[in-house]
Amino acid sequence: MCGIIGYIGAREAQPVLLNGLKRLEYRGYDSAGMVTLSSNNKYLSVRKSPGKIKTLEVILRKKPLSGHIGIGHCLTPDTLVLLANGQILPISKINDGDEVFAFNLSSRRLEPAKVKVSTHKSPGYLYHIRTSFSSLKCTGQHRMFVLSGGKILEKKAENIKRKDELIIPKYIKVEERKIHFRPIFVKRYFKATQEASGLIKNRLKALQLTKVACASLANISRSYMDHVFRNDRNFREDELQKLLPALSIEFDQNYFIPQNTIHGNFIKLPNESSPEFMQIVGYLLGDGTVKERCIRFKDLDRALLGFYQELIEKVFNIQGRVVPIKGTKAWLLEVNSLYLCRWLKENIMSRREEFLSELGQLPEDEIAAFLRGIFDAEGCVGLKNKQIVFGITNGAMARIIQLLLLRKGILTGLYKKERSVDKWNDYYILYISRRSYLEKFLQEIGFSSKQKLERLNTLLKIRRNSPSKYKELQTLNIIPQTILEIKKVKAEEELLFDLEVEHPSSSFIANGLVSHNSRWATHGAPTQANAHPHEDCHGEIAVVHNGIIENHEILKAQLIKEGHKFRSQTDTEVIVHLIEKFYKKIPLEDAVASALKLLVGSFAIGVISAREPNKLVGARSGSPLIVGVGKNENFLASDAPAILELTKDVIFLDEDEMVVLSKDSFKISNFEGKTIFKKPVRINWDITQAQKNGFKHFMLKEINEQPAILENILNLRIDKKSGQVIFKEQNVPEEKLKTIKDIFIIACGTAYHAGLVGKYALESLCAIPTHIDVSSEFRYRDLLIGPETLVVAISQSGETADTLAGAREARKRGASVISICNVLGSTLTRESDGIIYTYAGPEIGVASTKAYTAQLVALYLFAFYLAQIRGALPGFKISKYLGELRKIPKQMSQILEEQNDIAKVSRKYSHLGSFLYLGRNINYPSALEGALKLKEISYIPAEGYAAGEMKHGPIALIDEYRAVVCIATSSKVYEKMISNIQEIRSRKGKIIVIASEGDKEIKALVQEVIYVPSQDEIFSPLLVALPLQLLAYHIAVKRGCDVDQPRNLAKSVTVE
Fold this sequence. Notes:
This protein is of the alpha+beta class. The chain is built from 33 helices and 49 strands.
């Protein structure tokens, strides 16, 4: 759950909570729920559900909640799970009561444990975690066991870092059993011995049966009985099996001798698996085909085909033939048998998925034989890359083979090679590279191909041992796996699957990796049990929570010993049971404070209790929480949009603060109980700013809001009487600003690009050396800053972790910090010496648009403010600049009037595979921002460059398959940009130019020109931003991308 809301007052709570949850949807979530205190204040009523808020809304229509106080808050179907019997099944095929292998964290052994299975709707995006061994797609809330700092910890997917390592079990032992096969009808013939013929005649006499009566009894023909009496022919097996039981004679092959006939050899079809048979099956699945009447294998190795020819004859008693394939160096092994083909189709080919899932149950020697066969077919030994490599187009089979190799103690890498040719399947490649695993492969599996065996022995001579990273873990049953990639991906699956594992570790093996329960429930519907809110043992206290409790396993174990009963495996439920533990003869808020002191992690919580119906308690540490103050009603929320329709007066809780709300009062304190006095602040946003208002996407709405926002900022910041720039909330003294010797700007992403423009403006207008750093790098350098340095920290949300850390480091070193921020009361603004609010209103689209231009205007105004107080520019020149700046909103509106034309250009080039953005001087940052916008929302590779650097690499990328966006507005570097455009044109590059109105020269050079109004060069980034944003938007829409919530991105990055 990524957003919470609470209400206490005279209204019905349900509509308040439901509307608030809807306005928090943009934060992302995978379940929703709410709890209210009944109208008679006697009991709590809960409604919750996995999936979207729409699902919860349906439940509420059927079973509405009443009351005036309330609070409101895995794995994809193809994930392979290792069962305790050795089977390897997709999670979607597992049934309630099946036993999986759970990983005992104490003994490091695998133990059988029963499961319950449930499904729920997939969220909009999932996390894709990839190691060299395997990969997994899951929700952000799904937990994995990771090795971090030498310790095994449990982490949610959304909190896993690249430095963490996933773990896989080293030894997998199962109770072995053979696979049994279904028989099919085969016309097999036997010759009866003289003893058999005499036995039949004697039995007829003993039973006093005539030949005619016997034929009728056995349901065979009279003529057949005549042949039996004469014993003058071979007899079909199915007819004998009718006759002999009628005469009470056992079918004994000492009496009846198998015969080869013109219909074919006497075929042997096995009843159960064997090493020889499994090797043939491995070779068949790797490189064979089964036709109606024949089986074929192709190979360049004539000797290998000869080996399998002999093996097939030994197992099935059928002779094949090996012949050359005309016009090639390849050979063909052909085995003709109608019945063998039918039998293979019945037992293997028609049930391939089921058959593959059963391989893990086989005895070790049969698994080894199967692997030998499939590696004979599709494996190769690479001396150059020093690996055994195996490739196949069936991804599920590749992962099963991986797990079978793990059963043999052999670790492999796996990667998918996507085919560029339409209708070709992707290719899955396994590789074994470590010497110890190569040796194990040779000992346990090997090759039947002499050529491959010789190459493997050669490889072992040249392959050196690699040192183990964790020597102390070599004796334990785990293998650490380095994480290669963690990314958010758009969910393609409608349903996800959850397992409830009845084991203390709540774990199972998913795609070979040790995974925690997707969900857990001790009774009721598992997915429902894990949705918020959570209640205590007696249903008297309810909690919603945003964040993660890192020590919840330890706390849970202690609470279970004390008799608390858990209904879920979420970390949140620990909080409500801790409150219950302390909630004896003390007020609810004191019990909450006692509980919070034991928690390690981050949280924002809301708590209500049936015992004190007139209280709503909230607290925060690490996760944002605000208080909404109304008339005879009060609110809690994660973010302002949830309550803007009901109140605009809010209080921002600081770290480790708690609030107790009643309908007409609020009291704020720290966790020690010390009262803190705070006054509400007024939010001037309108609720319509957090809605789409008829636009298709929030991003398009926010692009179109920019003229009005900039107009508002300029009216607020430029004094109408004096014409001077004013910053009321900027608390760094003017005397201090007059003495600063240099400026450092720190920011991330789009804010960093705004900062680059700010660097040009500050140096040009104020003559102050200005540096800029990406926030994530700033604090890790040996910083040369001190009391005479001003640090400007830029963040839309004011919660960006790296920027916060950079600002804190700067203040430690004595520098003054001014923050440029959009969110009133955010952490960054509270920890800065001075603040410049951008007043852009709530920005819902993940890709920043209006916040960017608002940051640019704030930086320009700050540059004029500094120039003003330091005397760097004469007053008349500042006034002239400000006059030009005031024209920008109207000029932006002119650009937006032509946005349909920009959309046409965008759609025309939306099919291209990559884009290059070029700009010079103050529009070099514009090129970076244009490229970032495109790759953020359309996923097209795009790079921004200073145009002067084109000859130093980027020019190699230019051809007719790539677009180049050139920013060539009127400037002192205009002629140089024209030269760049001519170079691109000569190399057939697809060019889109953003130019100033009236530029006819540019139209003669390129076909696609987007004109912006003429403006002083220093302000051109403000105008250039709009066509760049619209290009990215319309290209992404044309390609069917989710522009408001692009994959792998979050609006506010609150972790490193």
